[in-house]
Design goal:
The complex is a heterotrimer. Chain B contains 20 helices and five strands. By secondary structure, chain B is mainly α. Chain C contains 25 helices and three strands. Classes of the chains: A mainly alpha, B mainly alpha, C mainly alpha. Chains B and C meet through α7, α9, α10, α12 and α14 of B and β2, α5, α6, α23 and α24 of C.
Chain lengths: 268, 516, 643
């Protein structure tokens, strides 16, 4: 990611430097924003905290939006902010919070030489790209932004989108349906067992041998882990509870399980 | 705001019907998910998907009959020419066979090769209940249809932007499908994540390449890039950057070295019908796109990229053939074999002449069916844990089920390029094309690689026929007519193309002309 | 001199040429696809199919004799097989005197061996499959010799390989049979790569693979040009693989794991001589390259020596015969390498060898049949009286191979020795001497075989009850024995075969200047042969033969017993580098830990668990290698641009 951004920035720099139309103000904006963008991208990669990384990505996206705006592409800049920074990053953060910000993976690299090799390769790649793009001079006759934005930026984009690229635009719908369908497949679970109503749950509890709540785990125990049995006042372990599902304390199988930790232990 | 007049683009929808039919079937499939009761979904899906594919095939035939002159339609975005139609026809036939495999559910006692509910965590109690039930995630049908639609569009795209969209349309459903195996779900999900991450990585390269080419030519249209390569004086660095980065994306999809190492893991982990679709369909579509890009846009600078492709082809053949020798899992072995075959087809790309193109087209069709048939047979060899893919379990299969093992042996012989199978004629076609364009060295390497490859194919034949069956070996599941149909189709194509390849050669040769 | 390359069209009787292939093809199809229903009558049908092809072959032969010499090459177009753009391969047949010889040999000897196998395989439960494969072999072999282009030859070439492979491994319950089958296949692949590259080279330079185009057009490339030599050497590599010539000879000994009729038909009389056919067929190519021809003679001489030496050391009767086959094919290579002067002599030896070697293999099979499938000659002895027919027929083959005057080998082998000396120069003397000594060694090991098997005391295993084989087996043996006696004389009578083959391979230099007068040379040869036979008699006829092979023997014997370290050479030249390459690549790949070449026995449970563990976290290393690849691609394109 970082390499890509770096190279993009470099490319932009070259293009700007080579093009005679670059105004001073644009150059100033570029040289302020581009380093920030690169720094943010690198920081995102090296950040050990997922939320920090996400926020740094937001910074990066903002910088890109500013660059777009500086190049007379207000529509793109707005979309960048609204869609990426607004929608997508918020979704990212949602998921992060849902999974739990604490659940950090081990960041110890187990593969020998992986990081060194990655760094070396990235460096080599960047050198190649910068060298190549730096040596490129654009001799292509460019119409200039004035022509492209003659009717206004949005209309210019619309014109392209609905004429030359209309089929790509239409085809994207297949992508969107696939994405929606994919989300359904991965997240939606059909209700195979009829849902147990609250009424039924409480009826079962009182019909059973143990109407009162179970002692919460760890109440009198030395550990507060969910799977450690509570100790009764006489020091013996409380009666065994239904086993906690491996790896999924809050997802599967709870519906049909009135005496599970969800039913009784949730208050602790 | 003053209303602006944007003239409506003219799109001749007629020649787009092969794709429209498939996408339509996919969309109807989504509606089926919503409105048809769960019990009846599978047969309805099957009918819809097969109708869509058959419709597409009819459309291809009609377009081929009515449009004798290759054209660019939809604002030059879609090329309707011989290669497009040939590859679309191939893909639709492969698609029909693949959908038949997807629909099979009499192999497993609980039905189907697909997971009952993907959202349920593997190993949980809820999963155990669901696995015992006979439900399945029927969304696989619309997903597969979307993937096929993307595959149809990929080689037909005449501009890189559309090509990228098509690439994503074909990839995204496959990422999902890869993770939906009913058995060994962790392996399957791992495969899906791997495929997704690496696929996204390669897409980034592809996009970056598009950007460079746009910078070079001022357009993403393949014809415009071709024109730009012909003009003198423009700085070519951007062009070479673009070629390199674009190739990375395309070579990843065809599974060429050094971008091949996702292939074995993903092929092994995915549900086998999906592997069959990936190994045949994706390869055909990606090669179609690769051929179009290199033949249409980069032809004039061939002297610069041909050495690269030489290297890639040699590396791919070598890595595929040599590494396959040590594999002990049938699916992994077939995966490495598909890598080696990507190398063989690349020799046709390197040839860069008409016979190279027609040879590659022929090879793609022949190889697609052999590999699909091979994977179809893998689905039938089962034990209590699902498919028995370890080679030691295939020992003595020829004694238990001579017909099945014989057909599998035929596919292996076709892979090995033994005469009178489609593999021989197709290898011959690409190699002779490469020779006529002066790539004799490459062909020599190819012949040696195919000799090495023959070793491990034959090893499996020895294993099946000449060794005693393992006492606790797998059983041969008796499939429904669906799997039989797919295998019969693959078998017929493999034999017919070996014995009388003439008509198809003529067709491929007639088709082998790109529109620019 | 120049072969007639304008082939006559197949009309009249010759329109039926394709039926030669069709008879056995239909037989094979019925037998292999027919299922159990065909169990009872299938084997007989197979014999009939082969017999029908033989009869048709005879009819065509008669028709061919009725035509003028230059008019005898008949080409039959079947259909257009591979019409790649601008390049056409037609499936067509070419029936000329050369292929006629092979057709008669393959169908004639083939039919006899089919009949023999009726008896030999009578109790095998899979006999239908066996006969199906045999018919399949006949089809492939006929296609090999009848194709009118190198591609059809290649198809037949692979086909006989496949059939041979299936038949070697026919008794697959024995692990050694499966291994032998695999070995034969792999060694043959090495040769096949040579052949396929040669064909591709022909196509690259001449734009065609048909005999008419290649053999007619090769002259345009110029004598001794690099391309011609390269094509010739690659063809030689292919021929070496199929004909078990040095350095690809090692598979033939292992191939003896197959049923004995297979050894007789495929690994003695027909398939292994395909290499000789290839060289004779490509005569116009070899005529243009003296280096290529020299190498052919060297390969032939080396192999004939190796085969003869190995033959002296083995106690396994079939392996002795197999090494003798190697050695005799060495003679044929030597002959065809000598150029136009000796092509016909090479083919003559091929035909006589087909008779006498098949006789001896069938005899060996008959002995094994009576001795509970024992192959160790140290367990035989004194069988002369209990198996009289086997003994007498075998004796005819024996006399033929050592070149006893009047018997077949006398006419063919002596001619080869003579032609080798006539080559002149140092090389002629060296080759001639090797061939001459080879004849002596041949006499030694064949006499040893005769004595150990049929004479001396009975060293049988206690449970052996040798008996003569049934008539269905002895019949073919008698016919073949007859061939061993008269074929040499019959074929050379009035220069018959040489004149017959002249339109294809050119005139033999019969009336050239001789280095040594033929009469003198014949006498010398007879003396050497007698010496070899006498030495064998002294060692094995006058002393008792121990039942176990003595261990205290000379290093030469040890080396010979070990196949002159041919396997070791193959291993270090072919197998080891391959294994190291594989290992290195596996190491680089970082993924192949779960498999080694033969580690198929590992259980699925353990390995899948291990796999799962090995796989976690590797996606980043995949990404890294992809990234490396991308950098490489970029570097190649950009730097290649600068450079």
């Amino acid at each position: 990611m970082s390499t890509v951004t770096t190279a993009t920035a470099t490319a932009t720099a070259t293009v700007l430097a080579a093009s005679p139309q670059t105004s001073v103000s644009e150059a100033v904006v570029f040289w302020i924003v581009a380093p920030v963008a690169i720094a943010a991208a690198l920081a995102m990669v090296f950040s050990r905290h997922a939320v920090h990384a996400a926020l740094l990505l937001v910074v990066d996206f903002f910088c890109l939006a500013v660059l777009y705006a500086a190049q007379d592409a207000p529509f793109l800049a707005a979309v960048q902010v609204i869609v990426y920074t607004g929608a997508i990053m918020i979704l990212f953060l949602f998921v992060l919070m849902l999974v739990g910000v604490d659940s950090s993976d081990s960041l110890v690299e187990t593969l020998r030489g992986q990081r060194v090799a990655a760094a070396a390769l990235a460096l080599g790649f960047v050198v190649l790209l910068i060298g190549a793009i730096g040596s490129a001079t654009l001799q292509m006759p460019s119409q200039g932004l004035a022509a492209a934005n003659a009717e206004g930026n949005v209309i210019g984009i619309a014109r392209l989108l609905f004429t030359r690229y209309v089929f790509a635009f239409e085809a994207t719908s297949a992508l969107l349906i696939t994405a929606a369908l994919g989300a359904m497949v991965l997240a939606h679970k059909e209700q195979v067992v009829p849902r147990v109503s609250q009424r039924e749950m409480s009826r079962r509890r009182f019909a059973g041998a143990h109407p009162t709540p179970y002692p919460s785990p760890g109440v009198f125990a030395r550990h507060d882990a969910v799977d450690t049995p509570a100790l009764l006042p006489d020091g013996t372990a409380a009666e065994p509870r239904p086993p906690v599902l491996e790896g999924s304390s809050n997802q599967a199988g709870r519906a049909g399980d009135p005496a599970g930790p969800g039913a009784t232990g949730s208050g602790s | 705001m003053t209303p602006t007049d944007i003239p409506a683009p003219s799109i001749a929808y007629g020649p787009l019907w092969p794709m429209i039919a498939v996408f339509l079937a996919a969309a109807i499939g989504v509606l089926v998910e919503a409105f048809v009761p769960a019990r009846r979904r599978r047969p309805v899906h099957l009918v819809v998907a097969l109708a869509g594919l058959t419709g597409g095939l009819v459309a291809v035939a009609l377009v081929a009959r009515n449009h004798h002159h290759p054209t660019l339609i939809a604002e030059r975005a879609v090329a309707v020419d011989g290669p497009t139609l040939f590859i679309q026809g191939t893909l639709l036939l492969l698609g029909i066979a693949a959908v038949l495999l997807l629909g099979e559910r009499s192999l497993d006692s609980t039905g189907g090769t697909f997971v009952a509910a993907a959202a349920v965590v593997p190993g949980s109690r809820g999963e155990r209940q669901l696995t015992a039930s006979s439900t399945m995630q029927t969304e696989v049908f619309p997903l597969a249809m979307f993937a096929l639609g993307g595959m149809l569009l990929f080689p037909a795209s005449n501009n890189l932007l559309l090509m990228f969209v098509a690439l994503e349309i074909l990839s995204l459903p496959l990422y999902l499908l890869a993770g939906l195996a009913r058995r060994r779900r962790l392996l399957s999900q791992e495969a899906a994540v791997k495929y997704f991450l690496l696929g996204a990585f390669s897409s980034a390269f592809f996009l970056y390449g598009i950007a460079m080419l746009y910078g070079y030519a001022g357009s993403v249209d393949l014809g415009a890039i071709f024109t730009a390569t012909g003009t003198v004086g423009s700085n070519d660095t951007l062009l070479y950057l673009g070629i390199a980065l674009l190739s990375v994306g395309l070579l990843f999809k065809i599974g060429a070295a050094p971008f091949q190492n996702w292939t074995p893991d993903v092929y092994q982990g995915s549900p086998t019908p999906v592997t069959a679709l990936m190994a045949s369909g994706t390869k055909v579509a990606a090669f179609g796109a690769l051929l179009r890009v290199f033949y249409v846009a980069f032809g004039p600078v061939r002297w610069d990229w041909r050495p690269l492709m030489w290297g890639v082809a040699i590396l791919t053949m070598g890595v595929g053939a040599v590494l396959a020798i040590t594999q002990t899992d049938v699916k992994r072995m077939l995966a490495y074999s598909s890598i080696a075959h990507a190398g063989f087809i690349l020799t046709g790309v390197v040839a860069l002449n008409r016979s190279g193109l027609s040879g590659s087209l022929f090879y793609l069709l022949a190889y697609g069916f052999s590999t699909l048939g091979a994977f179809a047979i893998v689905t039938l060899v089962r034990d209590a844990d699902g498919e028995a893919t370890h080679l030691s379990q295939w020992r003595g299969l020829g004694r238990r089920s001579p017909a099945l093992a014989g057909i599998f042996a035929l596919f292996l012989l076709a892979f090995a390029g033994i005469p009178l199978t489609s593999g021989f004629t197709s290898k011959f076609a690409v190699f002779s094309a490469a020779i006529s364009s002066g790539a004799t060295g490459l062909v020599v390497v190819g012949l040696i690689a195919s000799a090495v490859a023959a070793f491990f194919y034959v090893r499996v034949i020895v294993l099946m026929f000449f060794e005693a069956p393992a006492p606790d070996g797998p059983t041969i599941a008796v499939p429904s007519v669906l799997t039989y149909g797919a295998i019969a189709l693959a078998f017929a194509v493999t034999v017919v193309l070996g014995v009388i390849p003439g008509p198809l050669f003529t067709l491929a040769d007639k088709a082998a002309l790109f529109v620019r | 001199m120049k072969p007639a390359l304008a082939y006559a069209a197949a009309d009249g009787t010759f329109a039926a040429t394709w039926l030669l292939l069709a008879f056995p093809a239909v037989g094979a199809a019925i037998l292999l696809l027919g299922g159990r229903r065909a169990n009872r009558w299938g084997p007989v049908l197979a014999c009939l199919a082969a017999g029908a092809a033989f009869v048709l072959g005879l009819v065509l032969f008669a028709a061919m004799l009725g035509r003028a010499g230059d008019d005898r090459a008949i080409s039959q177009h079947l259909f257009s097989w591979i019409p790649v753009n601008g390049f056409q391969v037609d499936a067509g047949l070419l029936l000329d005197p050369l292929s006629m010889c092979f057709v008669l040999l393959v169908t004639g000897v083939g039919t006899l061996i089919h009949i023999y196998a009726l008896g030999y395989m009578a109790h095998d439960p899979n006999r239908r499959r066996f006969f199906g494969y045999l018919n399949l072999f006949v089809v492939a072999m006929l296609l090999l010799v009848l194709g009118n282009n190198f591609l059809a030859l290649y198809v037949g070439w692979e086909g006989v390989g496949l059939a041979s492979y299936l038949l070697i491994g026919f008794w697959s319950a024995r692990p050694s049979a499966a291994t032998a089958a695999k070995k034969a296949f792999i060694v043959n692949r090495v040769g096949d790569v040579g052949l396929s590259i040669a064909i591709m080279l022909m196509f690259a330079t001449l734009g065609t693979t048909s005999y008419a185009g290649v053999l007619g057009g090769i002259g345009a490339l110029g004598a001794n040009s690099g391309t011609v030599t390269a094509i010739a050497l690659l063809l030689l590599l292919g021929a070496c693989g199929k004909s078990a010539q040095f350095p690809l000879q090692s598979w033939l000994l292992d191939a003896m794991e197959g049923p004995t009729p297979v050894s007789a038909l495929i690994h003695a009389a027909t398939m292994v001589t395909a290499g000789v056919y290839l060289i004779a067929r490509s005569a116009p190519i070899f005529n243009l390259t003296s280096d290529g021809r020299l190498l052919v003679t060297i390969v032939g001489a080396v192999t004939l020596a190796i085969g003869a030496i190995i033959g002296c050391a083995y106690d396994d009767i079939k392996k002795v015969l197999a090494s003798s086959t190697m050695s005799q094919i060495g003679y044929m290579f030597l002959a065809v390498g000598l150029g136009p002067a000796a092509y016909a002599i090479g083919i003559l030896h091929l035909l006589t060898h087909g008779f006498f070697k098949a006789t001896m293999f069938l005899g060996a099979g008959s002995v094994m049949h009576g001795m509970n499938d024992t192959v160790d000659m140290r367990r035989y002895g004194g069988l002369r009286t209990v198996m009289p027919i086997t003994f007498w027929t075998f004796a005819m083959g024996y006399l033929a191979i050592i070149g006893f005057p009047g018997w077949a080998g006398f006419f063919s082998k002596d001619k080869i020795i003579e032609a080798a000396f006539d080559k002149g120069g140092t090389s002629g003397w060296v080759l001639g001497t090797v061939a001459l000594i080879g004849a002596g060694v041949t006499a030694f090991y064949m006499t040893r075989l005769m004595i150990m098997t049929f004479f001396g005391e009975r060293r049988w295993d206690p449970d052996a009850h040798p008996h003569e084989s049934p008539a269905v087996m002895t019949g073919p043996m008698i016919v073949l024995a007859l061939g061993s006696v008269i074929s040499g004389f019959a074929l050379t009578f009035g220069g018959g075969l040489q004149q017959f083959l002249e339109p294809v391979v050119g005139r033999s230099a019969e009336e050239g200047i001789h280095t040594i007068s033929p009469t003198v040379l014949t006498l010398i040869t007879l003396l050497v042969v007698a010496g070899g036979a006498a030495a064998a008699y002294r060692q094995y006829g006058t002393q008792a033969v121990p039942r176990t092979a003595p261990q205290a023997v000379s290093p030469v014997t040890v080396a010979a017993r070990r196949n002159l370290y041919g396997d070791a050479v193959n291993e270090s030249l072919l197998m080891r580098p391959g294994q190291y390459l594989t290992r290195a690549l596996v190491f680089v790949d970082g993924r192949g830990v779960d498999g080694v070449v033969n580690g198929l026995a590992a259980g699925i449970g353990g390995s899948s668990g291990r796999l799962r563990h090995a796989q976690t976290g590797f996606v980043r290393s995949y990404a890294l290698s992809m990234f490396g690849g991308a950098a490489l691609v970029l570097a190649v394109l950009l730097l290649g641009r600068l450079g």
